[in-house]
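Q: My labmate handed me this sequence with no annotations at all. I'd like to see what the chain might look like in three dimensions before we decide whether it's worth expressing. Could you predict it?
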Amino acid sequence: MLSIEHQQRLIWAAHPKREDFSVENKELSEVIAAIRTAIPDRFHTSVSARDRVFYDEPRNTLETPCAGYVRSRMCNIY
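A: Here is what I predict for the chain of 78 residues:
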């Protein structure tokens, strides 16, 4: 779990007051990078990411390493 401070920083950065949501949110990227530096154990490593199990099959299993999934995308309507 993230601290209250980190949660608040994410909330404020994730909800910018802007019109164009197709532009990268640099403030959010900076907050995530700062949190990753402060508490790196809260983020997946390349090794731990492969151990994840998802309920739904990831859209791109090549870019999203995982140990498996419960429900195939063929069952879902996206």
